[in-house]
Structure formats: structure tokens, C-alpha cells
Design a protein that fits this description.
This protein has one domain. The strands form 3 sheets. Strands 3-4-5-6-7 form a 5-stranded antiparallel sheet, covered by helices on one side. By secondary structure, the protein is of the alpha+beta class. It contains 1 helix and 11 strands. The longest helix has 52 residues. It starts with 13 loop residues before the first helix and ends in a 5-residue tail after the last strand.
Length: 212
């Protein structure tokens, strides 16, 4: 039952105040739960998108690296042939056959680079140019560039095969591949992600048929 204050205005009963407080508590709880659920769904969505992007990169790498050509080129300074395949932790250069779905026939000089110049983490970039331009350094060469992967915490390449280690022939994993006159058997791309404070790591390993 409502009562009148000294000012003559009607007030609220204790029951009505308790009901109003209960409604506010329920609405606040619903709002907090909605925000938390939205954040979790956003995190799950981000993981799913990243996983799909990595799957696409894996297919791209497998398609390209399995078309590698073992080609030697004359080094005018050293006056000897060297293999057109250079691999480092942040860059891979090699010669591939053209992708007949989107390119004309012939060979392509292809680079996979890990670009760390951005603020959002390293990106995996690929550059392609016609095979006739191998070894040329000219702006007239038409080079296409595509970003394959971005917003990743860490990216790095490794190479497995028989190479030189301190002057001896050794079979194992190498961070750098280049001086030897043969292709590695395997190329690995290591991808590290930090999503919602959780670290996930994934390796894409591709075998090179011509190295067998």
C-alpha cells in the first residue's frame, strides 16, 4: 500500500522497490551473458577463419612446390653453374611450371617471403615472374604479388635433405638451403598463432618429387 511523504507526494512500497531491484539484476545478468557469449563466438569464428586460411595455404604450397624444376644457372662472377633454389627461414626462391589455370605455359621464378614490416604480425607473400626473366634485375619484368597469410604470430621455413654442415655431408633439417647442388627432400612451413592467449602451432610439410 502506498503512503504519502511529508511533502505530500506518493512513494513506493518496499515490495515494489524489491521487485524493481530484482528486474534490474536479471537484465544486468542477461546483458553480461550476452557480451561474454559474443566474445567467445568471435574468438571461435577467428580460429575457424584462420584454420581455413591455413588449409588454403597448404593446398597452394603443395600444388606449387610439387611442380619445382631442378634448373642450374651460370653465375658470371664465380663462372660456374648454381642451382636455382635458395631457401632461408624467411624466404624461399625456386623455379616452377606455370599454373595453367591462370597463367600461360612455361616456367615461373617464384618467391615465398615472410614480411614482418606490418603491425599485425608477419605475412606470407608470394611473388611470381616469367621464367625468361630468371636472374634479370629490371623493372621491366612483370611481377605479380599475392598475400597468402597474415595476422599470424610467427612464420618460418625449414628444409630436410642431405646438405653440408661444417664442411661435411649431413642428412637432417636445415634453416638455410642453397650452396648444395641438389634440392631438399622436404620443405616445412611452421605457423604459430596466439588466439585468446592460447598458443597453437602447425607445420605444413611438402615433399619435392624431383629430390627423390
Amino acid at each position: 500500500m502506498k503512503h504519502e511523504c511529508e511533502t505530500g507526494e506518493e512513494g513506493f512500497t518496499l515490495v515494489e522497490l524489491l521487485v524493481a531491484i530484482s528486474l534490474l539484476a536479471i537484465l544486468s545478468g542477461l546483458f553480461v551473458n550476452t557480451v561474454v557469449l559474443s566474445q567467445r563466438m568471435a574468438g571461435v569464428s577467428g580460429r575457424l577463419v584462420s584454420s581455413q586460411e591455413i588449409d588454403a595455404v597448404e593446398r597452394y604450397l603443395r600444388r606449387d612446390l610439387r611442380q619445382v624444376f631442378k634448373i642450374f644457372q651460370l653465375d658470371p662472377k664465380a663462372k660456374k653453374l648454381h642451382l636455382v633454389f635458395r631457401g632461408g627461414p624467411d624466404q624461399l626462391d625456386l623455379v616452377l611450371s606455370a599454373n595453367i589455370d591462370v597463367e600461360y605455359g612455361g616456367l615461373r621464378y617464384v618467391s615465398f617471403l615472410i614480411d614482418e614490416s606490418g603491425d599485425a604480425g608477419p605475412r606470407l607473400i608470394t611473388r611470381r615472374q616469367p621464367g625468361g626473366a630468371l636472374g634479370e634485375n629490371t623493372v621491366a619484368v612483370k611481377t605479380s604479388e599475392v598475400v597468402l597469410l597474415e595476422n599470424i604470430s610467427s612464420l618460418s621455413f625449414r628444409y630436410y635433405g642431405t646438405g653440408e654442415d661444417k664442411g661435411r655431408q649431413t642428412t637432417g633439417w636445415f634453416d638455410v638451403w642453397g650452396a648444395v647442388g641438389q634440392l631438399p627432400r622436404l620443405v616445412e612451413l611452421n605457423i604459430v598463432q596466439n588466439v585468446e592467449g592460447h598458443r597453437t602451432e602447425r607445420q605444413i610439410v611438402v615433399d619435392l618429387p624431383l629430390a627423390r
